[in-house]
Amino acid sequence: MPIIRQIVLVLAAAATAACTNDPLQQKAIPDASTGAGRLGIGELCDLLVDAGANNSVYNNQVLQCPSRICLKPQDQVGGVDTAPLCSSECSQDSDCLGQTRDPNSPSDRRCKGGFICGAAFNIGPLCCKNLCLCKDFFANPPPTAATCVPYPNSGMGCP
Description:
It is a single chain. By secondary structure, the chain is of the alpha+beta class. Helix content is 10%, strand content 13%. The chain has one domain. The chain has 1 helix and 7 strands.
């Protein structure tokens, strides 16, 4: 088989393996400092949209996030300057250890207050799914999958 064709087949196989329709597929990547896997929680990411402070928004196809989930919860505090961040599925707060803001860097827009496990969305594919969420956005803890109430009559409620 010619070299060019082999390269194309390898690239096609890699692209196929990287694509997923599962918004919560977890892909740990090595952490050089500990040797353990990490899920990229708290890494800056690009949503490709600006939803404003009053809306929760996510993109579940962001390649820079190991879980592919980039999100920005609704600003329930007011004046939050935290940027959209990579997230991951969780079952408890201790699953949500992630990168936080460098207090010595004024341009750093990562999470200041750490992360909590909760449900940011009550509609769509991530409806009532526990995700690691930056505490900066919440005046009170967000609901969890167990306490989340799906949005009624939307046609897009929890699957």
